[in-house]
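Handout, section B. The chain below has 279 residues.
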Amino acid sequence: MQITILSQTPLSNLERQREGLAGGTVDIVHSAVDNAVAMIDVAKVDIVIVSGGDSGTNEFYVQDNIKDFSDIRGKAIVVDATNTAYALQAKKILGQRGLRDGTDYSLNPVGNGQRRLKALFDDKNNAGAILNLPYSLQAAAKGMRSLGRTTDMLGPYQAGGAFVRRAWARDNAAVLENYLAAFVEALRWSLDPKNHAEAAAMLVDKLKLTPDMAEKNLVVIAEPGFGFTRDAAFDMAGFKNALALRAETEGGKEGGQPADPQHYLDLSYYDRAMKLVQE
């Protein structure tokens, strides 16, 4: 059986992911799971989150002429989409500092991390962006400044994970479980120190990073609580924070109150997949 998987790459964005999953041309999406929440609550698509993955590796990067958050006033923040995931983190962080979207700054939706980084390079009126690896390292190399990690400012956050159409998962349970098992084994390989040199070479080849940047990427991505979670485990505390953030900034599912996390999850496929993983 052939399955179609879409993660965020230089050639993809949230709209392509959502449309593909909803329309059945994509079977498995890897992205910030807040996007799954939006699809379920707003678009009313019957999808379900089936694994965790990472906490985002997100930092709030700004142009070199921005000294602190107050300097963002009157400028734009570049985001992927304006109503999900890391845009909500940006709204919360700026709101904590007295800045309001649409009044004190604007959101400029340009697409994934690579496109956000390019927008920062191309126009200094784009004051900043939430950037993850490797784009945060590339921003730093160009002299941009980090105003802090989002996990330090907002607490734990369930970011990247896998989500699928619920009906597809039911009809292809064995396929999904084998896929998740393979994903976990690949993640273990990627984070194993003995594979460090080979993994760094892949980053240089596929992402066109410098060897030094590839090395830094591997170190940071392995940081507990900031990079990949062990075995793509789901971070329930981080997910509750993500739901609370969405409820606060976007109205949430029920009158501004975050919904029950189980409404969005079916981790039984992951649990069965872990029984397939080679120890």
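Note. Residues 5-55+157-187+226-274 form a domain with the D-Maltodextrin-Binding Protein; domain 2 fold (CATH 3.40.190.10). Compare this with the example in section A.
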